[in-house]
Structure formats: structure tokens, C-alpha cells
Amino acid sequence: MGLVIAVLVVVVGGVGGSHSSGSIASIQQVGGPDQTNSRYPGATVIPASEPKPAITLTDTEGQPYNLQTQTQGRVTLVYFGYTHCPNLCPINMALAAKAISLLPSKDRDRITMVFITTDPDRDTGPVIRAWLDHFDPSFVGLRGTITQIHQAETAVGMPLSYVEGASTGDYQIEHAGYVLAYSQNDVADLEFSDSTSPSDYATSLKHLVSYGYRT
Amino acid sequence: MARTPAAASGNPDADGRWHRPRRTLVATLAVVMGVGLAGCGSSHSSSGMSSMKPVAQVGSLEIIHPFLPNPASPSVAAIYLTVRNTGSTPDELVSASTPLTSQAMLMTENGDSMAPLADLAIPAHGEASLTPGKDHLMLENPATTFKVGQQVSVTLRFAKAGQVTLEVPVVPLDDILNDGGMANMPGM
Description:
Oligomer: heterodimer
Number of strands of chain A: 10
Distance between the termini of chain A: 15 Å
Order of helices and strands of chain B: HEEEEEEEEEEE
Strand order of the largest sheet of chain A: 1-10-9-4-5-6-2-3
Mean pLDDT of chain A: 83
Structural class of chain B: mainly beta
């Protein structure tokens, strides 16, 4: 609620009257299912919590990786994207890396960032590994067949990605533009957008580590 | 541009983009928070960029604070910049090019979807920006391995003012989070 109030103040002070009243109305209108929580600044609280699914994909070493068992009890960030992505994907990765870096090591050690490619044709294990290492070598990179990736997206409740402009050779991919965060209780609890500040992101992660789901 | 979802389940909207219904608030907040970050890189802002020295000029247009975050991918990069219009005639940035690749394209982000940007409108006596997370100049398959400190030659073409060539510095990847290393970003 604190976030919404802060946002409204910015709107009123920042832009013209007709714009601001429209924005306020739309926030009030859709404020039902989505929530904010002052303990989790900059994040959207997911109203319908879902347990971490037991999906198995392949990691950058070519080994099977089960999301549920291998991240059990850890705050887990999940992002679907692709390395041939100029703007949102590197921002989301850099932002997660920055936020995690702001935490003390005891908290950092309880967080796993999982990147799942939506572009397995171009994103081989080594390509993903090299890309992730620019942000944080501890980040986990996963790939699979398109069918497996769509199953994973469905399992975590994200919209399905799809290729756009494949006929031109250098195609882009539509995909969810946010990071999903599971609490230490292995429940999907928060979403982070690329407009979250690193310090807010870090605060929210610390609270996920300290308190767990929806407290 | 035709969009062909590869698999079907979800809620395509009128643009063919897919969302869960509850994306609406996030999108609204993101837009509003973007306004909240005015002063550094947002369109039409009168503070922040106004004190920065232009790196190039054509007609009444000034190019301010261009930067290229050192890309994590060898196959794609993005350039961001601000155009300030000191004149009384609106203009549009319509295209850009660089000797590093034939594939330089203005792009925009709409929530989960990236699409070509027809032009970037530069209002009279105002500013417009290519900004991380929003509009950007995409370079595909650049014929170089970028290094921080490197200068990349880029030519911008405007509908009325004509074209101008400038040198864009490669900055650390992390600077994508704070508009290319600008100081005093609120909330950053």
C-alpha cells in the first residue's frame, strides 16, 4: 500500500491533471487481485500463490536440473528470456545481480537465480553460460526443447513465449518481462519488473530470505 | 507485423500479445514509476539532461548522453541517448546506422513485447530519449567485440533536421541500470 501511495503522489506532482486522474482510476480499478506490501518494496505480490513446480530442464553443463528439488528451501528467482535480447533481458539480469550483491553473504547464499532460455536453438549451454557470467557466475542457466520450455512457463504461471520474425533470420522472441520470486517456503510470492530499484529489490529479497512466504 | 504464437493457451490481447489479466497493474505501475524517474532520460523532462553538454548537434537538435552498455551477448547490443530540441519545430528520429552492422534498428518495448519503432518524436522545445527498458537502438551482429571506453560511430537521421554522426562510448554493463552512469538517479 505504501508503494501505491508513493506512486500516486508522484503522478499528481509529475504530470498533468487529466493524465493523473486516469492513472489513479486505473490503479484503483485493477487493485483487487494484485497487491503491494511494504515489506516487499518495488515488488508485486502474487495473489494466487503456487508451489514451485517439479520441472526438469538441462543446465549449462548438460546435466538434468529439477527446479523443485535443486532449489528446495532457497529463495529462487526465475526469469524466462534469451541472450540475443538487447534491452529487457540484460536489464533484468543486471538488476537481479545488483540487488543480490547488495545483500550480506549469508543472505546471498540462500538465493538462486534461474535463467530459462526461450531460444534453445541459438542458446546452447556454453552460450548461456558465457552470457550469465557477465552478470553473476552463480546464476543457473537452463534450456530444453520448445515443448519443455512451454511446459515450464505454464507450470510457473507465466505467459508462453513465441518467436517473432523468424523468417528474417535474426528473430526476436516475445516473453514475460518480469522475474518471478519464490520464497524459502517454495511458493511463488513476488514479481519484480525492470523498473524496481536495486535497493528495493534487495530489501524484498532479504525479507523473502528472513521471513518466507507472505508474512 | 504478423505475430504467430507457437502454442496456444493464454489470453492474447488486441495486439496479439499475451498476458495474464493481472499484468495490468504491473504495467500501470511501471508506466507511472517511469514518470517518477523523470529527470534522467525520460521523455520531455526538463531537468537532469538539460544541464548536460551535447555531444553533437544538427539544426536545432542536440544529442545528449549517448551510451552503449558493454553487451553480455556477442550478437546484440543497445544504444541509448537523448535528443533535445531547442527550436520551435517538432522533429522525428527516423533511423540510425553504424559501420559496425547493417542491422541497426529503432525498437520499442510494450510490456512483454518488443517491436520496431517507426520514429521517435522530438517535441519543439523539448526532449525525447532512448532509455533502458524502453525505446532503444538495437544493433544486431556487430562486427566487433565491444570494450569499455571504445567509441562507436553512429549516424542518426531526422525527418527535418537531416543527419548527424556522433561517437557513442561503450560503458560498463551495469550502467544499464542507471542510465549510463548518470549520477543522482532517484531510487537508484
